[in-house]
Write a sequence for this structure.
């Protein structure tokens, strides 16, 4: 468990980067940062981007330089990686369960601004104990289920009850609502996606009002993702947006449609798996050195970049299979063993988690090597 | 990019292991080692287990203590991890392409017995150059496509031609045939699986004979996996078997059928994802702290252990969703937040690649922490 060696040296040509590797097109990445900042300018919502996507404090700090208020994450180990990489304000947008993790979470709250979510009274009691033992007061948000059917208590009265439990705990403070509708992010049709988001927004709005009637103020009302951020931004209800994938994008988000039914293009692909053709025996097939351990296929296959007529059709542990249709116009590049190609990840988050390094590319050269310090931080 | 901290301390109770973690049931693991050794006893084939499954030299050395002749692997980084962990004989059962990797491969051949595969004449020339520069003679096997439609030249004349090219290279030696039929491993019905394996065996046998007629001897005739090992072992053609999953097993291999149409039970599940219930809001649902970054779903969902009526129905990045059917007999364990459960991986190889540590369990206690040193060794 030494880290894996870096696949590149700063200054080398992109074509010399060893494969498989994660390439960041730095110009596209920076355009995505700016586009999101511009898109939410003027709304009451600030960005708190999800670091579960990039797992890299260098990226989180770039997001903060574009106006983000901090980062969110799902695991204590991710929060530690962000804090130790210089991020001063982290929301764990998830439940943290079990004494070893709670001890670490409370200890981290002595070193940075840390908030966490809860959906269970026993867990709130455990959070209180851990915060007390560490001598900190921890802000705890109530997670409400606004349609994802995953974690979270029901909006309305159950949320109020849990908020009161938090507020009454000696070492906790009620910190607001976590109201993320994960499933809605990937609804393809714009109007259907908007409808799902609006339902979540309405449930959240009512719960905020109920809490307010009972003297409880939401410091944070957080949620939203790359698929719905514009709806929550315009809602007047949410004040923090937790989009993560927008910095890199992937094939899955690329399947969303915009309001005209065209492909969603608010952001562009800035992350690529760089891979080498390792076998080319038949005319209709090429094999890449990137398989299930180099890219995640949970949300469908990745897609080839710059290669019309070439389709990524299957992945085994260490091999990616390409089908080549030479009849497609523009498919005139005859892939041969040793050729390097760019692949757009099918699903960005679990793909990033397979790597220790981002290779930053600008003008065809390696400009930076960023360590993915929260890679594998499952706990 | 420090390694992830270990999730346990040697000597602690299993219930105290932090989650998600990879548990090895050491008794079951050792039974699997012995069963495979017993199953192939008396055949001309020796075991050269695939380390792409376990990525851990500790496991490879245990396999060698049960008669394995060495290890195989897919990547130079895996080979380095095995050699530096004490494995003296490694076959890279794959094509290695590109100068940076070939330099490392040839350098490693000065430190251990290293062999590699090829299916392309340009790649053979590059292997020759790298071996010459390092001052080594490298054994190169010809990979033949015996039905997998992935890498490998066609059996027969194309294999002979490539073998001659290897043998004529100044710094290479023809080392035999790599003849692995990946797709056949997961054919569920016994007779269909056997038929696929027999086809591969026949193609391999003919190619061995053709090579022999041309004065070329196969030091290694290698292939086979956990799904078909008994056919290659009994073939009289193969002398090395590359099964890997047998040490741990998974849900996918558990779907294979034996000759009576019953579930394949040559080996038992010895590897488990240990996970914690982190949310339990509704009666029919529980959420685990293990999602796509803790288990691979490429070959289908994982399965719950010891919990009748509880099904693993979906994974998002950091959450696993359980559906609970209380009407199922025996489903009397009322899962609550904080409970820890064992999950059988859907597909073992990419799941292992998500972790840095195996937690070895015997008699309910942590007996060992084995580092997964080839985790992430993609290059």
């Amino acid at each position: 468990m030494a880290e894996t060696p870096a696949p590149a040296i700063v200054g080398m040509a992109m074509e010399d980067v060893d494969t498989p590797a994660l390439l960041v097109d730095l110009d596209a990445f920076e355009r995505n940062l700016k586009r999101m900042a511009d898109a939410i300018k003027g709304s009451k919502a600030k960005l708190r981007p999800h670091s579960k996507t990039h797992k890299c404090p260098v990226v989180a700090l770039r997001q903060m330089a574009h106006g983000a208020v901090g980062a969110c994450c799902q695991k204590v180990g991710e929060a530690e990686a962000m804090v130790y990489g210089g991020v001063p304000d982290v929301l764990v947008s998830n439940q943290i369960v079990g004494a070893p993790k709670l001890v670490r979470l409370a200890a981290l709250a002595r070193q940075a601004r840390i908030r966490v979510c809860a959906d269970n009274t026993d867990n709130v009691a455990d959070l209180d104990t851990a915060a007390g033992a560490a001598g900190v007061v921890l802000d705890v948000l109530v997670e409400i289920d606004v349609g994802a059917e995953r974690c979270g208590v029901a909006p309305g009265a159950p949320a109020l009850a849990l908020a009161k439990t938090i507020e009454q705990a000696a070492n906790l403070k009620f910190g607001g609502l976590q109201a993320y509708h994960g499933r809605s992010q990937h609804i393809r049709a714009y109007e259907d996606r908007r409808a799902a988001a609006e339902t979540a927004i309405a449930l959240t709005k009512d719960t905020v009002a109920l809490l307010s009637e009972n003297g409880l103020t939401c410091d944070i009302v957080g949620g939203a993702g790359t698929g719905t951020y514009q709806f929550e931004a315009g809602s007047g209800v949410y004040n923090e947006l937790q989009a993560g994938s927008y910095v890199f994008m992937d094939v899955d988000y690329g399947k969303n449609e915009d309001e005209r039914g065209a492909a969603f293009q608010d952001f562009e692909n800035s992350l690529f798996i760089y891979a080498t053709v390792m076998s080319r025996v038949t005319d209709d097939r090429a094999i890449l050195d990137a398989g299930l351990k180099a890219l995640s296929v949970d949300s469908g296959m990745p897609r080839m970049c710059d290669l019309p007529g070439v389709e990524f059709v299957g992945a085994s542990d260490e091999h990616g299979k390409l089908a080549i249709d030479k009849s497609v116009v523009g498919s005139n590049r005859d892939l041969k063993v040793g050729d390097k190609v760019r692949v757009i990840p099918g699903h960005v988050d679990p793909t990033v988690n397979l790597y220790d390094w981002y290779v930053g590319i600008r003008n065809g050269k390696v400009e930076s090597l960023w360590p993915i310090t929260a890679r594998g931080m499952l706990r």
User: Anything to note?
Assistant: The CA atoms of residues 208 and 218 of chain A lie 7 Å apart.
